[in-house]
Amino acid sequence: MRSLPALTSLRVFETTGKCLSFTQAATQLHVTQSAVSRQIKQLEDYLGVALFIRRHHHLELTESGKQLLAKLEQSFNLMESAVQELRDPKQRQKLALLVPPTFATRWLAPRLASLHRHSPELELSIHNSDVDSKLFDCCIRFGRTAKPSHYSELIMLEQHVAVCSPELLEQAHDLEHADGSLLHILHKGERLPVWQNWLQAAGLTDQVDASRGMEFSTLDQVTNAAINGAGFAIIDKHMISRELQSGALVPFSEIEVSGPYGYWLDINAERQGLAKVIRFTQWLREISPD
C-alpha cells in the first residue's frame, strides 16, 4: 500500500508552484482561492514541512517546495504520457534520446530506417548534450560500467582493429619505425589506452612506443586523418564499417581487442514502463551491432 497524500492536493500544489499565486492557480483549476489555500495547508500538514513562503504580494517556494515541485512535474508528465499511450497506442510518440555524437552519426543514423520499419510510430528527438537538464527517455553512454540508480544495459563493447590508408599498408608491417605516426583519441582530456591494449595483444609493447604520435579530440578527426594517410589508428570497427567496406581504411593486422569501453543504454526508473521506451529497447536488442 502506497503512503501518499491526496492526488488533488499534489495537483493543486504543482499548479500553484508553477504560477506562485493562489489566485492564478484557482483560476487555472476552476476552483476558489480558499479551496487552493486549504489544499496547500492540508498537504503541508501531511508532509510536516512548509512548501511556500507567504510574502505580502506573492509566494516563494521553500527548498522543500522546490524539491517536491521538480519531482511532481516529472511524475505528472509520466502519467500523462502513460494515459495517452493507452488511449491511442498507435499515436506518434516522440522519444527524447541523449546520444554521444560519434555513436549518433556513425552507428545510429545509418540504422534509423530499420528503426522506422520496426516502430513507425516513434519519432526520435536526438541530442548530444544535457546542458539544459532535459528529462530524456533514454540515454546512450560511452563508458566501462553500468550507471548506478538506473536500468543500465550494455549495447555493445568496442571491438578495436588496427587500420590505415591503403597507401600506408606496407609501412604498417614495420610499425616500430613508424610509431611517430600513431593516431590517438582523447576522452575527457586523456588518451584512450587503445594503442597500449592493442600492442599488448599483438606482442609489440617493447617494440613500439605508444606514447608517441598525434592526438585528436574526436573519432571523426582520427578517422579522417587515417584516411588521408596521416598515420595508423586503432578504432572500434562498429564506427568505421563504411570506411572498411569501401576500402578507404584497411586493416593491417588480424588482431582485434574487445573493450574495456562500450556503449550503454541507461533509463531512469520512472521512464522504464513507457511503451516508446520499451519499443526502442526491443529494437536495440534485435539489431546487429555490426
TrEMBL record:
HTH lysR-type domain ranges (all copies): 5-62
Any GO molecular function: DNA-binding transcription factor activity
A biological process from GO: DNA-templated transcription
Domain of life: Bacteria
SUPFAM superfamilies from the UniProt entry: Periplasmic binding protein-like II, Winged helix' DNA-binding domain
Keywords: DNA-binding, Transcription, Transcription regulation
Protein name, UniProt field: LysR family transcriptional regulator
Organism the protein comes from: Oceanimonas doudoroffii
